[in-house]
Design brief:
alpha+beta; 27 strands; 31% helix
């Protein structure tokens, strides 16, 4: 017994000594030790959130770091309870009550749009946009809601707008993005369609196995190994082994002390990442059919022409610009193909980032043009063009390669405000012009042939109706011209001095659903005028798009087609007597309606949106007949 007592005593003494040592160490660090909280230079702490997966942790962000001047500067940014850099609290159910003269703009994007680098919430791009919207005019009150969030890709923006933006019934939606969609999938190796930190979230998801009746929660490494090797423990506890299949980016920079969890992804998967980005942007456009949109690409500090070469040196729609776009697209595809089998990571992702960022801007502009051609107010801008081209001259507008200084945010906020105000000034003017023209501006144009003999082909609009669509034009009778379409006096369409579309539309009702119709548009112009004609049927309620749509551009002086797209069939154009140009096409109507719009383009540039300076054409009317 004495032997056991001595052994117990030795163990007890050693245990007391061990506890005393631990207590002494803890005592020392409590009184003289300093905990080092990891700093995130220009980073945002993130928290898990329902639906959007991650959001900026709410609270105050009191300083940022300018990587170019090596200076830390103070900030008064404080988020709302959801982590948005906005002074208002948001609700998923409580509608926002607008004032009688109030318009709401929703602003979305990633951390640059959120406002990393701003010295205060009202110094962000959203804050400056609201400032200029309300100081550059006095007739209306504009409210800008900042729904941007750090690290978000476009699909998370889409969800955020759906959850919290719907309550505001927005008049405008402005998106500034593209950088995160270019970087998250490959630079951070999260894979196509996945948000930032998805690999880490997947570990939590896999670790929290859930059955209908019994939750099985994740446990520490030691217990997990015990479960793996002990059948008795598994039976006794009812727990299951969770395989540890985590993978980490070996190229994560050591100076960041970060082991970044990844999903193995190849550089060539950038093609799927780009497609997912564009699909999210299309979804965003469908959220608010009555709102106007500005889509834009986030700027970065690097020399602008390094990513986009000479694309933006030429006017939109010009042959030179189209050629530059085609050339850059081929270059980007070749660049990606060269590295497509490499594994993604910080050291290997540049081809994927460049491919998505460059092509994303090009494709986003085309998407905006398609929507605008359907009659929606959707515009695209590459915000990088607002700053000088050389990197050295861009630096003052940034605090690091992707985040803006107060100066940069002011430039962007003012730009958006000016574009919104210009468009909002135009629309009331267009409505007034339409109403004024109503008594003398028919949309009832002659129907010929088989259509004339059928009541189903009779146009619904008559001489005492306004045009179906009229924007950016003044319309006057051209009494010196003899009618080329029976019963319709030609009108001169003159572009008003507004930077916008300049178009006039007519509508044909009571046609045969599913029928094919031949339409002829008569135009006459000055020597340098170009025009674009669009044809479509009604928007499908499910998609907010017409099932059949097409557009064709003309050089009227030469009576030639310069560009065409969409569903217009059997295109033809020919000169006729007295200087008229006869443009014809076939179009199917799903619902028994056809809309035809005649637009002015800016001379040889072929620009749809331009500052009107008296450009004009004579509109002779539209003929329609049903195909046999």
């Amino acid at each position: 017994m004495k032997k056991y007592a001595n052994a117990i005593g030795v163990v007890a003494v050693n245990l007391i000594v061990f506890i005393a040592l631990l207590g002494g160490i803890e005592f020392y660090f409590r009184h003289w030790g300093h905990e080092q909280k990891k700093e995130l230079p220009n980073g945002l702490w993130q928290s898990f959130q329902p639906y959007v997966m991650i959001a900026t942790a709410p609270g105050a962000y009191r300083k940022f770091f300018n990587t170019f001047t090596k200076e830390t500067f103070r900030s008064a940014v404080r988020t709302n309870s959801l982590g948005y850099n906005d002074p208002r609290e948001f609700s998923v159910t409580r509608p926002y009550k607008k004032a009688a003269n109030e318009k709401v703009v929703l602003f979305t994007g990633g951390s640059a749009a959120w406002g990393v680098g701003a010295t205060a919430t009202d110094r962000t791009a959203a804050g400056r946009m609201q400032y200029y919207l309300n100081t550059l005019q006095s007739g209306e009150r504009y409210t800008v809601i900042n729904l941007a969030m750090g690290s978000w890709i476009a699909f998370q923006q889409f969800i955020g707008l759906q959850l919290w933006g719907s309550q505001f019934d927005p008049d405008w939606v402005v998106a500034m993005d593209g950088f995160n969609d270019a970087g998250v999938g490959c630079n951070y190796s999260q894979g196509p369609g996945n948000p930032m930190y998805f690999a880490m979230m997947r570990s939590y998801i896999d670790g929290y196995l859930m059955s209908t009746y019994h939750p099985v929660f994740y446990r520490g490494w030691l217990e997990n190994e015990l479960i793996k090797h002990s059948k008795a423990y598994r039976i006794f506890t009812g727990k299951q082994y969770v395989p540890d299949d985590q993978m980490f980016d070996q190229s994560s920079h050591e100076d960041m002390e970060v082991r970044r969890q990844i999903i193995p992804t190849k550089v060539g998967e950038a093609r799927q990442m780009l497609a997912f980005y564009l699909a999210a942007e299309r979804g965003t456009l469908n959220l608010f059919p009555r709102a106007s949109y500005i889509l834009s690409t986030q700027p970065v500090v690097n020399q602008f022409t390094g990513d986009f070469n000479d694309i933006y040196q030429y006017p939109v729609g010009s042959p030179e610009r189209n050629a530059a776009i085609d050339k850059r697209t081929v270059e980007l595809e070749g660049y990606l193909t060269q590295y497509e089998n490499a594994m993604c990571g910080q050291d290997t992702a540049q081809p994927a980032n460049t491919y998505i960022f460059g092509n994303g801007a090009i494709q986003l502009e085309r998407l905006a043009d398609e929507e605008a051609a359907r009659g929606r107010l959707v515009a695209y801008y590459n915000i990088g063009t607002l700053f000088p081209d050389p990197r050295s001259e861009r630096v003052p507008f940034f605090i690091d390669p992707v985040h803006l200084s107060d100066q940069g945010m002011d430039v962007i906020g003012k730009f958006y405000a000016e574009k919104i105000l210009a468009a909002d000034r135009e629309r009331p003017a267009a409505a007034h012009a339409s109403a004024a023209a109503a008594p003398a501006a028919p949309a009832a144009l002659a129907a010929h042939g088989a259509a004339a003999a059928s009541a189903s082909a009779a146009p619904a609009n008559t001489e005492d109706h306004a045009w179906d669509y009229l924007v950016g034009l003044t319309v006057t009778d051209e009494t010196a011209e003899e009618p080329v379409v029976a019963g319709f006096q030609p009108r001169r369409l003159t572009a008003t001095p507004i930077a916008s579309r300049h178009g006039l539309g007519v509508r044909f009702d009571q046609l045969k659903p599913g029928g094919t119709y031949h339409l002829t548009v008569w135009l006459k112009s000055a020597s340098d005028a170009w025009a674009m004609v669009e044809g479509r049927d009604s928007n499908d309620p499910a998609t907010s798009r017409p099932p059949h749509y097409g557009a064709v551009s003309y050089d009227l002086a030469q009576a030639t087609v310069t560009k065409s797209s969409g569903d217009l069939a059997k295109l033809s154009v020919a000169s006729a007597k007295d200087g008229w140009v006869k443009a014809a096409f076939d179009l199917v109507t799903q619902d028994g309606r056809i809309f035809v719009t005649a637009n002015l383009l800016e001379g040889g540039n072929g620009l749809m949106f331009f500052q009107g300076a008296g450009q004009n054409v004579v509109f002779g009317g539209v003929e329609i007949e049903q195909r046999q």
